[in-house]
Amino acid sequence: MAVPALFDRRERGLVIPFEDIETARSAMLKTDLDGAIADISAAVERLGAPCGVMGFCWGGHLAFHAAANLPVACAQSIYGTKLDGVMGLEIAAPMQGHWGTEDTHAPGEVLKRLERAFPAIEILTYEGAGHAFANRWRPAVYDADAAELMSVRAKAFLEAHMPL
After folding, report:
1. Count of C-beta atoms within a 10 Å radius of residue 102
2. How confident is the model over 75-95, as pLDDT tens digits?
3. Domain boundaries in the chain?
C-alpha cells in the first residue's frame, strides 16, 4: 500500500487534520491535476502489478483519472467529488463507487449522469448517509452502519480484482 503525498508539490510535509475542511479544500484547489496523477502513477509503478487505486473525497475524483490513465487492476471512488469533471474520461479499469444518498457533493442527479456515462462502473449508495460518512474523526457525518457496509463491499471488490 502507498499513500502519495499529493499536497507536497504545494507545501512539503503538509498534514491536514480531518476536521480542517477549509485547509483541505484550499490545498486541493491549489493542487495541479496532472501533478497529482503523476504522483499516483509513481506510486503505482513502485508497487507493481496488480495494483488498485482507492480514493476518498477528492481522492475519489483522482481514482477516476487513475482508472482512465494508469495501468491499475481496479479503482474505487469513496464519496468522490468533482464528478462533472470525470464524465468525458474513458475508464479502462474495473471501477466501483460509493456515495451516500445525502451527499451534497454528489447529488442523485449527478450519480444518475455518472451511471449513464459509465454503465460498467458499480455505483453503490448508502441510504441517509452524507459526504464523508466513513470518516469516524468527523462525528457529525460519520455513519457507522454505512461505513461498515462500504468496507465489506470495497474489500470484496478489491479481492475480486486483485487476488492474492
Report:
1. 18
2. 999 999 999 999 999 999 999
3. 21-161
User: 21-161 falls under which CATH superfamily?
Assistant: Alpha/Beta hydrolase fold, catalytic domain (3.40.50.1820)
122-126: strand order across its sheet? 52-56, 74-78, 95-100, 122-126
100 strand-pairing partners: 126
Residue 157 CB neighbour total at 10 angstroms: 21
Q: Is there a contact between 46 and 127 (Cβ–Cβ < 8 Å)? A: no
Number of alpha helices (DSSP H) and beta strands (DSSP E) in the chain: 5, 4
Q: Tell whether pTM > 0.90.
A: yes
Q: How far is CA 57 from CA 13, 25, 133, in A?
A: 20, 10, 11
Pick the closest to residue 18 from 99, 130, 137 (CA basis). 137
Retrieve residue 94's grid coordinates: 474495473
Segment 103-127, tens digit of pLDDT: 999 999 999 999 999 999 999 999 9
